[in-house]
Amino acid sequence: MGFNPIVDEDKCQGCEQCVDVCPVEVYEMVDGKSHPVNAEECLGCESCVEVCEAGAITIEET
Predict the structure, then answer these.
(1) For every one of its 62 residues, what pLDDT tens digit does the chain have, with 9 covering 90 and above?
(2) At residue 48, what are phi and psi to the nearest 5 degrees?
């Protein structure tokens, strides 16, 4: 079983908190928005979900 991080670009405010908190560097900033460029590395810890004040990130189990 794996995890799929999803960023709602309309909600993302570009604060970079998810980039900073992710222990496996799933996220990178692209054009001022967070993108899960290494989604296959996601551990499902949801630390990114917790720090995202905009509520832009969800993690789905695959």
Answers:
(1) 799 999 999 999 999 999 999 999 999 999 999 999 999 999 999 999 999 999 999 999 99
(2) -65, -40
Q: Do 44 and 5 meet the contact criterion of CB atoms below 8 Å apart? A: no
For residues 3 and 48, is the Cβ–Cβ distance under 8 A? no
Decide which of 3.60.120.10, 3.30.530.20, 3.30.70.20, 3.20.10.10 is the CATH code for 3-61: 3.30.70.20
Quick check: pTM over 0.85?
yes
